[in-house]
Amino acid sequence: MSSIEEPAILLVGGTGTTGLPLSKLLLSKTDYTLLITSRRGSQGIPADLFETCSNAGARIKGVNFDWDDRSTFENLFSDETRAVGTDEITLGSLKVEAMYLVPPYTGYTDNSARVLVDLAVEHEVSRIVLLSDTLHEKGELSIGAKLQEYLHELKKAGKIETYAVLRPSWFYRNFIQLDRGDILQNNQISSMKEDGRIGWVSVATIAETALHALVDDHAEVAEQYIITGPNLHSCDDTAAILTQVLGREIRHHRLTLADFLSRWSEAGFPKEYVDFLATCDQRAASGKDEAMFNLESDPRSSLKRVKGSETLEDYLRDNESMFTRSRIDDDAL
Q1: What gap in Å lies between CA 225 and CA 172, rounded to an integer?
Q2: DSSP labels, 74-132
Q3: What is the per-residue pLDDT across 108-127, written as a single tens digit (0 to 9) for each?
Q4: Where is the Ketoreductase (KR) domain (predicted)?
C-alpha cells in the first residue's frame, strides 16, 4: 500500500464534455494529482487521458461516484483504503485543495449537490468551481443557479475561501450531441430560440477558464465568469453557416412549445430536463443570451468576461464530416 500526500484536485464530472478537456489541461500544465469521479471508478477513466503526459498514470486516481447513490459521496473524502486501478491508495491522505463540480442536469428540488458541497467544506476543500450557465441568475430555478446562491452563502459565512461559477453560453458541441440527427436526416436545426442571438462557445474555452479558476491565486479568481465565443449568431445565422460549410441547404425549423416538449420527451429525456431545456430556449428567444454577451468584466461585482477565439464556422468546418450524408450509412453499420 502507498500513502499519497500530493495536493489534489477533485473533478466531479471529470470525464464529461467540459471535464475531460479540463483534466487534460490540468495534467499537462500543473503537477496536481487528479481525483476523477466515475460510476465505474478507475474503469470509467478514458484510456487516452493516461496518454496526456508521461506521469499521467501516477497522477490520475479514479473513484466510484454516482449522483443517485449517496453512499458513494463519502468515497471522495474517505480515509478508508480503496482499490484504484492496480494500486491501493489511501484517498484520505490526498489533500484535496479544489473541486470542479458539474452538477446533474436535473434535481434542483433535490439537495444531493448541496450534500456533496457540504462534504467538501467539512473536509476543508478551500476552492469550489461550479459549472452553471448564462441563462439563470443566482438563486433561480436551476440546479446551477441554486448552487451558486448556496456557495455565495458559504463564502459570506466564512466556510469556504474561494468559489467561482462558470456561466458558459450554449456549446458548439451541441450541434453534434443534440442536433446532428436532425441535420443529417432532415437538413434542419430545430428550436424555440426564434430570432434570439447566442454567443456559442467551445468547450476548450470553458476548460481553459476552469483551469485558471482552479489554480490561480485565490485573490485573482472571480465569483462568476461569463463565457462565450467571439460572435453572436441567431439560429437562422447558424443554419446559413451550416449551409455554406456543408454545401447543402440547412434551415432553422421553428418549434412551438408543444412540438418542443413532444420532441425531447419522445427522445427519452426526463420531464424535468425537457422543461429545463424549454425554459432555456425561451430565454434565448427573449434576448437573455445577447444581454449576457454584451456584459463586460466588473471587479465590483466579481464578474469576469471571457470570449473564446474559435468561431462557430471554424468549429463546424473542423467537424464537417460529422454532418455529411455518408455518416448515416456509416453509423448504421
Answers
A1: 18
A2: GGGT--SEEEETTEEEEGGGSEEEEEEE---SS-TTS-HHHHHHHHHHHTT--EEEEE-
A3: 556 899 999 999 999 999 99
A4: 9-79
Secondary structure class of 270 (helix, strand, coil)? coil
Q: Which of 168, 187, 209 is the last residue of a domain?
A: 168
User: Dihedral sign, CA of 173, 21, 201, 244?
Assistant: negative
Which grid cell is 301? 461585482
The residue type of 181 is: G
Domain of 107?
6-168
Tell me how many degrees the CA angle 185-187-190 measures, rounded to the nearest 5. Answer: 95
In the structure, how many helices (H) and strands (E) does the chain have?
A: 13, 12
Scan for cell 476543500, then name that residue.
125
Of 99, 171, 92, residue with least CA distance to 130: 99
User: Computed over its alpha carbons, how large is the radius of gyration of the chain?
Assistant: 20
Residue 86: pLDDT band with limits 50, 70, 90: very low
Q: Are 68 and 135 within one domain?
A: yes
Residues 177 and 117 in one domain: no
Predicted pLDDT of residue 74: 87
Q: How many CA atoms lie within 13 A of 226 on its CB side?
A: 24
3-state SS class at 181: helix
pTM of the complete model:
0.91
Residue type, 196: G
pLDDT at residue 248, rounded to an integer: 97
Q: Give the pLDDT of residue 250.
A: 98
Q: Are 35 and 9 in contact (CB under 8 A)?
A: yes
